[in-house]
Recover the amino acids of this structure.
């Protein structure tokens, strides 16, 4: 009988920790305001509002830099959920200028608060931006990936 309870307890523990790696996806309408950092690059202040799995309505805010020489985009962003939980992530990828800008790359979760406290993970991102508006450029951002331990305290 003791052996049964030991096996049962181990199964429960395995179940309690199973599934801590969850899919994450967000679709965000963005707005970027550009400023020159040199003739060969541009700084972007990117804000946005959208919906995210594991978070509901979210906002993002963070800086990005694009090198016109290498086509590389780097940056960091804070995603804030409606309950005030935050997910801080860094990203790096490619930025392609055309009639509109397209961008894509990878992101890594760095830290978080609330439901994102102790989180790790990452994934990919892609999006577009309409260029040429002096007040700022609207766009879309799609983020996919996995988060490990969201909300685990």
């Amino acid at each position: 009988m003791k052996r049964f309870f030991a096996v049962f307890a181990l199964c429960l523990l395995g179940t309690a920790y199973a599934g801590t790696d969850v899919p994450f996806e967000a679709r965000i309408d963005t707005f970027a305001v550009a400023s020159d950092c040199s003739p060969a690059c541009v700084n972007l202040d990117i804000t946005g509002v959208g919906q995210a799995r594991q978070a509901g309505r979210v906002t993002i805010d963070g800086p990005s830099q694009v090198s016109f020489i290498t086509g590389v985009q780097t940056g960091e962003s804070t995603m804030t959920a409606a309950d005030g939980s935050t997910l801080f992530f860094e990203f790096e990828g490619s930025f392609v200028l055309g009639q509109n800008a397209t961008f894509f790359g990878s992101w890594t979760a760095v830290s978080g608060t609330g439901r994102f406290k102790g989180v790790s993970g990452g994934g990919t991102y892609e999006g577009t931006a309409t260029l040429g508006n002096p007040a700022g450029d609207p766009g879309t951002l799609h983020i996919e990936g996995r988060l490990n331990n969201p909300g685990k305290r």
Residues 31 and 153 are 34 Å apart (CA to CA).
